[in-house]
Amino acid sequence: MLNCLTFLLSCPCKFCTHFKLQSMKLITIFFLFLLLASPIVSGATLKQQEVEVLKEIGNTLGKKDWDFSVDPCSGERNWTSPASKSYSELNAVNCDCSFSNHTLCHVVSIVLKSQNLSGTLPPQLARLPYLQEIDLTLNYLNGTIPKQWSSLNLVNISLYGNRVTGSIPKELGNITTLKSFLVDRVLEFNQLSGNLPTELGSLPQIETLLLTSNNFTGELPASFANLTTLKNIRLGDNQFSGSIPNFIQNWRSVETMVIQGSGFSGPIPSGISLMKNLNDLRISDLNGSDSPFPQLDRITNLQTLMLRSCNIIGAMPENLGNLTNLKVLDLSYNKLSGQIPSSFAELQKMDMLFLTRNLLTGPLPDWISKPDFVDLSFNNFSIRKSEEPGCQQGSTNLFASSVNGNSIGNISCLQNTGCTKSKFIKYFL
Q1: pLDDT (tens digit, 9 = 90+) per residue, 378-397?
Q2: Rounded to the nearest 10 degrees, how much is the dihedral formed by the CA atoms of 75, 78, 66, 63?
Q3: Which of 107, 103, 186, 184 is nearest to 145 (CA)?
Q4: Which DSSP string corresponds to 207-262?
Q5: Residue 153 to residue 129: CA distance in whole angstroms
């Protein structure tokens, strides 16, 4: 074989010359194929300084199973764990290894969800200069939010379901890259307190602000009028004071707004009618005096509307029938009077209707049994004898829904017994 190849390479004839050219092409293509098809083995590693910082962070968090015998950016051992049904990532240190011609890595994301961590929030995270995401959801972490984090170009902070205390550092208002504060109910169910810092109104890219179930006090800062990029805001279960500010009309991009049991007073501001992108609006337990029904007919994207215990008086407006995308409507515990609007028959997508504990009168509409569940209890409807007697007609709860039982027999449960609100368990969506 070798002798034949030597002869072909040395032979001057046209045939051999042509064969040599073709052979060289084939050899070139073969080696290119090997080069492209072979896996590229990356020599990129995490900067040693950041490795040492991760060791400190692990100690502060109580994260004891990080294996530093392998590179943290390798994805090996326990630096990355499989996703769960609830989360795309549970335990992951993610890196960008494009630095120094793909030889150097930097940590850009730390996700430690449901890891049973019982330490404190680590200020050392500020020493990871390329960090963009801190997700410590559903742990047992204590302490306060370190103001040192404000030096980072963070996009997402998630502390949902921990034991964090203290106030929100005003310095976090300097994180101009922040979009989620915090994603997936972050900061909810902690024990944060104090007034919201005015500086948070300087977050130019914030989209998600979820502060439910803390102990925040005071009024919403006027600077929050500048948060025009918001899409999701939840302020419920706090101890705020003052009225819901009319500047919420500036939040034109908001799709979800939840202000349940927040401590605010009514009325619901008229500017809410300008928030046309809303599809989920939930307000409940407002303090203050009575007020008329807010104008909502132009918010046609609404799928969930809860205005529960908001001191609303008067008749329900007919134009609510324009909200044809509604699936859930809860107007319980107000002082609504008159009949159920005939336009409600147009709400073909409605699955659940709650009109509990109002002053509604008149006959029951023919469509009332179409939703999956309807609660008309504690009202003053006129129940006709021709209608099927009973307090539970299919999916419709009629307990104490009729004025004086309306003489349809011994069905005492239809009579309005005057039971107080405090004896009921609230329905939360």
Answers
A1: 999 987 655 545 666 668 89
A2: 120
A3: 186
A4: -EEE--SSEEEEPPPGGGGG-TT--EEE--SSEE-SBPPGGGGG-TT--EEEEES-
A5: 8
Q: Closest by alpha carbon to 380, among 354, 396, 410, 357?
A: 357
How many residues appear in the chain? 429
Concatenate the DSSP letters of all residues of 130-143 into one string. Answer: T--EEE--SS--BS
Q: 């948060």: which residue's tokens? A: 227
Q: Is the pTM of this model over 0.90?
A: no
- What is the CATH T-level fold of the domain 45-423, as seen in this structure? 3.80.10
Residue 112 near residue 139 (C-beta atoms within 8 A): yes
- Measured from the Cβ of residue 388, the count of other Cβ atoms closer than 10 Å reads 10
What six digits make up the tokens of 114? 């449901």
Domain map (residue ranges) of the chain: 45-423
What is d(CA 130, CA 253) in angstroms, rounded to the nearest whole number?
29
What Å distances lie between residue 391 and 284, 337, 400, 412, CA to CA?
Answer: 27, 21, 8, 9
